[in-house]
Amino acid sequence: MTTGSMARVLLPVGIASVVMFVALLFFGAVDVAPSEVWMVLTGRDAANAAARLIVIELRLPMACCAFLSGMALAVAGLLLQTTFNNPLAGPSVLGVSTGASLGVAVMMLLLGGGAAVGVARYAGALVGAVAGAAVMLLLLLLFSRIVKGNAMLLIVGILLGYLASSAISILNFYATEEGVHSFVIWGLGSFSGVTLADLAVFGPLILLATFASFLMVKPLNALLLGADYAESMGVNLTATRNRLLLLSGVLTAVVTAFCGPIGFLGLVIPHVARLTLATSNHVRLLPATALWGGFAGLLCACISIFAGNGGILPVNAITPLLSVPIIMYVIINRDKLSYFR
Amino acid sequence: MKEILLELKDVAVGYGTTPLYEDVNLAVARGELVTLLGANGAGKSTLLRCVTGRLAPMLGCVEISGRSLAGIPKNELARLVSIVSTGQESGGGLTVAELVGLGRQPHTGFFGRLSRRDREVVERAIEAVGMAGFSTRQVASLSDGERQKVMIARALAQETPVMVLDEPTAFLDVASRLETMQLLSRLAREEGKAVILSSHDVASSLRLSQRLWLIVEEGGHRRLVDGSPSALIKTGALGNLFRGRPVRFDSAILDFLPVD
Questions:
Q1: Is the C-alpha dihedral spanning A3, A5, A11, A14 positive or negative?
Q2: In A, which residues are within 8 Å of B138 by CB distance?
Q3: What is the ipTM of this complex?
């Protein structure tokens, strides 16, 4: 695959992403005349305050958040798949998202962080999510040394996820009604809860972690041949694994803290990238996964707004509909797909 | 006197506190192909792990090109010894050139970009294993034998004085097995490498290796015996390879047969 054919695949994805991004600025749950939106976007004073509020304070952060979240989850998924040498790994499958959720639940329900406003509202959730994801990844790392076989580790991840879920249920049981309500809403998954001020935290964190992932392409490629070969080619396995898990943990945790536990994108997008580019070389696969992830985030946002009929459909109601058929396709065709062999 | 590339000095190999075997003194010269033979569980892989620097010897030291492997950083080790394992499934989503190019990792910069010289080395390695013309093919589309050749080319591209292969022919049919052994023997000679491989294929090992390392059991404990195939046949050491098992070595066909 040459750079030319990579562009041929990714250019339409990029263009579609831009189109959806713009659509999310012009259309939404509340009607704003396109001319008003245009005036706000071009910064003209004539724009009315309500339109400015809706476009700049609500729609713009939402569109950015959708792109960045999709990108972050997809990259996290790819890092996990390569680290565990398992194409069916992903932040939600391995229980990393649920671990992050548990951290958020502890913060929101136990410590009453749900009452705070603004960036502080998310500061607690963010700390909780990172801690929860980190604990889950450490457990997975531990189990990956004990249990042999890829399928077994997936089952361990699913079981750990159930444990975290049950802890969340118990926390819910003892929490205030108000706390439970806000936690349930958060758990449905949404890109719309992020304000412009939140984005100033969310955006740089995601971009930084994604950029740091790009710096790992060399060891990531070595890991394609398995741990033994990678080590024989000079990769420091422990340090590399720790870095990759930290990055995927941060990416997952940040998205989870701001948008709720969003499933499936991390699992499915790396496959979409591999299938469309026909390569598992991370030099091309990682940027492609990031772009496809952003595309998928925007697509979910568009569906949640435009199919919502005035409301906003939960993102977690949409991601399985888009993802499960692709995963099924991958599983059914696994003998024919080059990267499984 | 040929240049010694790999040397084991008074090495004891094993895990925990009891060594599998002790007082191992071995040397492999440039251009030599050595085959390690031994029963299942005799500790072939353990010895190879020691030779590749992944397992520290309990006693003694392992040297490659005169450098001790003890405490050597991973990236420097990667310039001294390359490996090929039995493993069948890996890197299917790469092209042949990309996979062989991974062998350049110890020599490339932060992003692993290949320079012109790196590309030349890769191309030459692919040619050396007889896979010229396959560079842009996806690894997943190759047969098992072709795939193993590509893995050998990858090790070749790593440009290490020592190459260690752990049962590289285990999953191959007889034709590919012989072809791979011949290839390795030729590479050792022509590329000036010390090649060490473990195998269960006694017949082709005897025909195609200059030297054998046998893990034999004598008097209740294991010992490593080193020698040329003909010498080891003569001394009867080969007959001790599967002591107490219902097989016997037949020096006419150079292979084991069931005891009648």
A1: negative
A2: 278, 338
A3: 0.92
Q: Could you give the count of Cα atoms lying within 13 Å of A245 in the half-sphere of its Cβ? A: 23
Q: How do beta strands B67-68 and B81-84 pair?
A: unpaired
Q: Under 8 Å CB-to-CB from B126, ≥6 apart: which residues?
A: B96, B97, B100, B132, B134, B135, B150, B153
Nearest to A225 among B90, B106, B108 (CB): B90
Clarify whether residues B101 and B55 are in a common domain: no
Residue of chain A whose alpha carbon sits nearest to that of B152: A229
Higher-confidence residue of A113 and A260: namely: A260
- Chain A interface, best mutation among B90, B100, B108, B150, by max A CB count within 10 A: B90
Q: Of B111, B139, B159, which residue is a domain's last?
A: B159
pLDDT tens-digit readout, A82-96: 998 888 899 988 899
Per-residue pLDDT, A118: 47
pLDDT reading at B47 higher than 90: yes
| Architecture of the structural domain at A75-288+317-340 | Orthogonal Bundle (1.10)
Contacts of B94 in chain A (CB under 8 A): 224, 279-281
Instruction: Say whether both B226 and B119 belong to one domain.
Output: no
Cα–Cα distance measured from residue B103 to residue B152, given in angstroms and rounded to the nearest whole number: 10
- The answer to whether B138 contacts chain A (CB < 8 Å) is yes
Collapsed DSSP state (helix, strand, coil) of residue A90 = coil
The residue among B187, B169, B198 whose CA lies nearest residue B34 is B198
**Which of A147-156, A325-334, B12-21 has the lowest average pLDDT?**
A147-156
Q: Which residues pair with B212 in a beta bridge?
A: B35, B227
Q: Is the pLDDT higher at B104 or at B254? A: B104
In a 3-state reduction of DSSP, which class is residue B24?
A: strand
For residue B25, give its domain range.
4-80+162-258
Tell me whether residues B78 and A233 touch, CB distance under 8 A.
Answer: yes
Mean pLDDT of B155-172: 93
pLDDT of residue A3: 56
pTM: 0.91
Cβ pair B83:A229 closer than 8 A: yes
- Which residue, B159, B174, B197, sits at the end of a domain? B159
